[in-house]
Amino acid sequence: MRWLGLSNLHGWISRAVLAIAALSLLASAARAAEVTDLTQNMPRGYVGEFSWDGDKTIQNVVITFDTVHALNEHNAEAYGCGSYEIGRQVVTKIKVRMFVRLSDLQVELFELTPEGSSSFETGGSHRGKLSSDLQTIEAQWTTSATKQRGQLHLRAASSLTCAPAASM
């Protein structure tokens, strides 16, 4: 009799392990589908504004992503270019690299190799959120050295290039 009880316990444990393995496989497949959905459906262009905290100057921003790909089943990465414009006078072109965490659509956007304004700040990053419909990015820039902050507000737009926003 005692052997029969151990046999039932062993069978129950085997079924539990099998069920956990199956759920893990399903969850992995669902995450793979999520990352594929993001990489295929994320707009390739965003337009909007940036302003430093405490400064009323609005900078027009255009960002275009040339590539969006999965890093793994939890994260995606996008590369592209962008431009900033202040009153049609100062234009800075940049390269951009953005990381997206799928679980909560948190983003971190880096600006690289500025061309134009010699005072353009690239020592920091924008951290924020991509909306669930992938149509907006709300992020806060923090400069690494000074901790100066600014706000970035972007909305999806089609047929963008890395030209200044006012020329769109």
Instruction: Give the helix/strand class.
Output: alpha+beta
C-alpha geometry: elongated
CATH topology, by name, is: Lipocalin
Strand order of the largest sheet: 1-2-3-4-5-6-7-8
Radius of gyration: 23 Å
**Number of E strands:** 8
Helicity level = 10-25%
Terminal-residue CA separation: 81 Å
What's the story with the biggest beta sheet? 8 strands, antiparallel, barrel
Mind telling me the CATH class?
Mainly Beta
Mean pLDDT: 82
CATH architecture term:
Beta Barrel
**H/E element string?**
HEEEEEEEE
Whole-number count of domains: 1
Total helical elements: 1
**Ranges with pLDDT <50 over ≥5 residues?**
25-32
Tell me the strand percentage band.
over 45%
Plain-language structure description:
The chain is α+β, with helices and mostly antiparallel strands. The chain has one domain (40-159): Lipocalin (Beta Barrel). Helix content is 24%, strand content 46%. The protein contains one helix and eight strands; from the N terminus they run H-E-E-E-E-E-E-E-E. It has one helix at 2-41; strands spanning 45-52, 59-70, 75-86, 90-101, 106-115, 124-130, 136-143, 149-156. The chain has an eight-stranded antiparallel β-barrel with strand order 1-2-3-4-5-6-7-8. It is elongated. It starts with a helix and ends in a 12-residue tail after the last strand. The model is unreliable at 25-32 (pLDDT under 50).
